[in-house]
Write a structure and sequence with these properties.
Blueprint: H1 2-17, H2 27-40, H3 58-68
Length: 69
């Protein structure tokens, strides 16, 4: 359990250092936020954007960028 927690928090810390705000601290949530960041072309912010798992391609990202510009 401790190893998983360390991995989760390490991934979360690296994401935050890169300006990404994931929806949670698990590796899964961090990876979703990193994928969304790649599609958006800017850091993902769970506080102001739709769930990261919905930003699955550049077309979806275009709508997020238009509304959160």
């Amino acid at each position: 359990m401790w190893d998983k927690t360390k991995r989760d928090l390490s991934a979360y810390r690296k994401a935050r250092e890169n300006g990404i705000q994931p929806e949670g601290t698990t590796v899964e949530k961090v990876r979703e936020a990193e994928d969304a960041t790649r599609n958006l072309g800017r850091p993902y912010d769970a506080n102001t954007m739709p769930p990261a798992n919905l930003i699955v391609n550049k077309n979806a990202a275009r709508y997020v960028n238009a509304s959160n510009g």
